[in-house]
Write a structure and sequence with these properties.
The protein has about 500 residues and is of the alpha/beta class. The protein folds into 3 domains: about 150 residues, Rossmann fold (3-Layer(aba) Sandwich); about 250 residues, TIM Barrel (Alpha-Beta Barrel); about 70 residues, no CATH class. It has 22 helices and 15 strands. The chain is globular. The chain starts with a strand and ends with a helix. The relative contact order is 0.08. It binds cobalamin and iron/sulfur cluster. The site of iron/sulfur cluster (SF4) has 10 residues, from loops. Iron/sulfur cluster binds next to loops.
Length: about 500
């Protein structure tokens, strides 16, 4: 039996999608054939071409809320061209709103963590000769939601969470035909290449309103982590097999007090074996000690991305961040002492956020002096406490997934700040010298960059404008990217340049 996993065309999710990579590895380990179609890197015709082979008994598509409609469009094509295959959808949006896909004819939804579920499903449908006649076999699979031909939606008993994450095979990076492109990620303007992501833990016990209970629904309420030894093996393998020089630990919570011993063990393994790989990840402002950060630094960690969100305590409390502004200041001071670079993650646009609150964030950034800032506009994703609260309070906000655009800012909720004010605040905190390539490939930077140009034109600061444009035109990273332009004709970079050009023409 062969399975096909499809990752939709999507311009923000760069790098290897670990969910699908993990599922493919498990299906392969269980002895089935598996192929991955990463539509981000394939020509438009590739999907039809692949489906016309009628090679697959199971066809699975990833879905987050942002691309829920894109997933549906692919699902429609699968239904038309391969009606005999079991069409399954998984990922965050499928977990949060399974009926959204079931209504559109998807056969099966896999809820949350799916490595065990997908193997169980393959084992069952491997024996099926005619999907239509043998639909009831689905009753036997834990962790799925499906629709009987009568229209009745069935939620099977849950799949237990995987206790031992070490038992999972390494992600099937090798099944991504465009691995080279995926490893050439420019996450920050500092990262070394080849670069990739790893995920060594699952879950987060905190309850920030814009994020939870999504993670609870997907990975449960307890936090789990691979052993330090297993993570060491994973990174060594990435280094030997793919010459990876830098990894991003995309764990929700890289540092947590309960993982102190883990961190110490990991550090000693790295030191003892001289593992030469640079890494970084994201963490909270109040979940680590100086000693832990020192150990991390000496084990190759060079940067920490900290979820600060705001410099106003009122806003932090609105998000239920369970941190104090002082914790943020302490975290950045400690990182500096230890020698770690920092990224501050900032959100603007809470419905109760005033210009005074936003100004406090600007002051905070001045004080903590991060090496880099990632800034977004608050988005209420379905399935979050925030979404439910806004709905209950009758606050008007965007619920159309298509408008949850491909990059930040995403879904603009009603806020006391105007969109322009938010962009001004964003502009005032982003770093003065990020690479132009970085700016152009990120929508929020593009917006602020465009705004910067507009302001310079309005203020008749033509010299400064000239310098900025010259910098854009001569940035070595941009020049180096030209062959890539051809390949990604339709992507952000070209659109960004077009938008910039139009903006200059309009305002000049
Ligand atoms: C790292 C990360 C990113 C990175 C991704 C880098 C990369 N190459 O993967 C970056 C920064 C690019 C990113 C961007 C965004 N992200 Co993000 N991200 C994450 C994070 C922290 C980890 C993702 C991950 O690797 N998980 C580990 C793997 C193993 O889990 P998984 O992908 O969910 O896969 C499992 C299941 O979902 C399922 N599954 C997955 N795919 C499939 C497919 C099939 C067919 C089946 C059956 C099952 C299945 O099985 C997998 C194995 O158990 C998650 C939170 C989290 N812990 O998951 C948020 C998360 C996925 N991101 C989220 C969001 C909102 C975004 C953005 C929209 C943010 C923004 N405003 O721009 C963008 C959009 C990206 C997109 N197009 O979807 C939300 C999604 C919520 C939602 N309702 O969709 C999450 C859940 C965070 C949260 N708590 O809200 N993100
Ligand atoms: S700490 Fe981070 S991962 Fe955990 S709930 Fe808050 S935002 Fe989500």
């Amino acid at each position: 039996m062969n399975a096909l996993f499809i990752f939709p065309k999507d311009t923000i999710l760069f790098g290897v999608p670990l969910g699908i990579a993990n599922l493919a590895a498990c299906v392969r380990q269980a002895g089935y054939g598996v192929k991955i179609l990463d539509l981000r890197y394939e020509p438009e015709t590739k999907l039809k071409q692949e489906l016309s082979k009628h090679d697959y008994k199971l066809i699975g598509i990833y879905s987050s809320s942002e691309i829920a409609n894109v997933t549906c469009a692919i699902a429609k094509e699968v239904q038309q061209l391969n009606p005999e295959a079991f069409l399954v959808v998984g990922g965050p949006h499928a977990t949060l709103d399974p009926e959204f896909f079931l209504e559109k004819g998807v056969d099966v939804i896999l809820k949350g963590e799916s490595e065990h579920t997908i193997v169980e499903l393959c084992q069952i449908i491997n024996k099926v000769k005619d999907k239509k006649k043998e639909y009831s076999v689905l009753e036997k699979v834990k962790g799925i939601i499906w629709k009987k031909p009568t229209g009745e939606v069935i939620t099977n008993p849950p799949q237990p969470y995987i206790e031992d994450l070490d038992s999972l095979p390494f992600p099937a990076y090798d099944l991504f035909p465009n691995l080279k492109e995926s490893f050439r990620v420019n996450y920050t303007w500092t990262n070394l290449q080849p670069f990739t992501h790893v995920l060594t833990s699952r879950g987060c016990p905190y309850q920030c309103t814009f994020c939870q209970p999504v993670l609870f629904n997907m990975f449960g309420k307890t936090i789990r982590r691979m052993s330090a030894k297993r993570v060491f093996e994973l990174l060594s393998w990435l280094k030997d097999e793919y010459k990876i020089k830098e990894v991003f630990f995309q764990d929700d919570l890289l540092f947590h007090y309960s993982w102190k011993n883990w961190l110490f063990e990991w550090q000693s393994l790295v030191k003892k074996n001289d593992l030469d790989i640079r890494w970084w990840g994201q963490s909270r402002a109040n979940s680590s000690t100086k000693e832990m950060l020192e150990k991390a630094h000496s084990a190759g960690c060079y940067m920490v991305m900290v979820g600060c969100e705001s410099g106003s305590q009122k806003i932090l409390d609105y998000y239920n961040k369970q941190i104090k502004v002082q914790d943020i200041e302490n975290m950045f001071a400690t990182c500096k002492e230890v020698g770690l670079m920092t990224i501050a993650e900032i959100i603007f646009g809470a419905p109760i956020e005033t210009t005074e609150d936003a100004q406090k964030t600007v002051e905070l950034i001045k004080k903590i002096k991060p090496d880099n800032v990632f800034t977004t506009i608050l988005t209420a994703y379905p399935g979050t406490y925030l979404y439910d609260k806004l709905k209950k309070d009758n606050v008007e906000f965007e619920k159309n997934f298509d408008k949850i655009s491909r990059a930040v800012p995403t879904q603009k909720i009603q806020s006391l700040l105007t969109e322009n004010q938010i962009h001004e605040f964003q502009t005032s905190i982003i770093q003065p010298n990020p690479s132009i390539k970085y700016i152009l490939t990120r929508q929020y930077y593009r917006k602020t960059y465009t705004l910067k140009i507009k302001n310079l034109i309005e203020q008749k600061e033509f010299k400064k404008l000239g310098n900025l444009l010259l910098l854009t035109a001569t940035d070595p990273a941009i020049i180096k990217m030209r062959p890539v332009y051809r390949k990604y004709r339709e992507t952000n970079i070209m659109k960004a340049i077009g938008n910039l050009y139009r903006s200059i023409k309009t305002h000049a």
